[in-house]
Amino acid sequence: METPDENTELIEFFVNSLLSWYYQNGRNFPWRETRDPYRILVAELMLQRTKASQVVPVYLEFIKEFPDVLSLSRASPERIREYFSRLGLEWRAEKVLALAKILAEKYEGRIPCDRKELLSLPGIGQYISAAVLSFACDVPVAVVDSNVVRVLSRYFGVTPKGEGRRDRKILGLASKILPKHSHREYNFAIIDFAALICTPKKPKCKRCPLREKCSNKLL
Fold first, then answer.
1. Which of 36, 90, 117, 127 is catalytic?
2. Which segments constitute the HhH-GPD domain (predicted)?
């Protein structure tokens, strides 16, 4: 029996439909208007468990005060905590400062575009490292969180085991279908699609461009 990652027709329809939808309906955020690794890293650190609309004003003020790694590395823990507490993420403040100091001392203020090096840094896990690589470094890596897992599992009919974003089958599928030449747009597309159409509760199936081939039983 053919598995989802072997069904080229299903994959092509998914990717093409998703990208077409994104070009017409994708959201616009300040961190998407840059390829600066530092700014993208800051955004991703703030976006953890936080709505993007809430992050925008805090992000803009933060970048204005700390425009680069070196300025951030000299900040006081209290000042960083003030920003992150506005997002309910005050617990991240110490890691953010520790991260900035390492980047300033070891990398001369640069953000490494290497998965292994990124993962060795405080506060950076699989998702943030993938986001930095795809959005800033132009490395074709699938960005996978619980929202992306929801879209993939519904459309392809794959049931993740345990924590979906760590499930090998889901991660393998996400990597297999990733369009190498438009990975950045695709990753933005599936994130936005999960937020606007394929929502956790009451997904907007009637407006879904994937409906024709989606395996979701709600259809």
1. 127
2. 46-196
Instruction: Tell me whether residue 163 is one of the annotated catalytic residues.
Output: no
Tell me the two tokens of residue 176: 């297999």
Instruction: Tell the CATH topology of 36-135.
Output: Endonuclease III; domain 1 (1.10.340)
Lowest mean pLDDT among 2-6, 21-25, 43-47, 134-138: 2-6
- Reported pTM: 0.93
Catalytic residue among 44, 83, 167, 192: 44
- The alpha-helical segments, DSSP class H, found in the chain are 8-25, 37-47, 52-65, 69-73, 77-85, 93-106, 115-119, 126-135, 146-156, 168-177, 183-196
Question: Does residue 30 contact residue 58 with C-beta atoms inside 8 Å?
Answer: no
CA 219 to CA 207: how far, in whole Å? 11
Two tokens at 218? 């709600």
Question: Domain locations in the chain?
Answer: 4-26+141-207, 36-135
- Sequence-separated (6 or more) residues with CB below 8 Å from residue 124: 41, 99, 118, 132
Radius of gyration of the chain (CA): 18
Is 80 exceeded by the pLDDT of residue 213? yes
Is 22 annotated in the active site?
no
In the block, tokens 């994937």 appear at 210
Question: Which class is domain 4-26+141-207?
Answer: mainly alpha
The pLDDT > 90 percentage for the chain reads 88
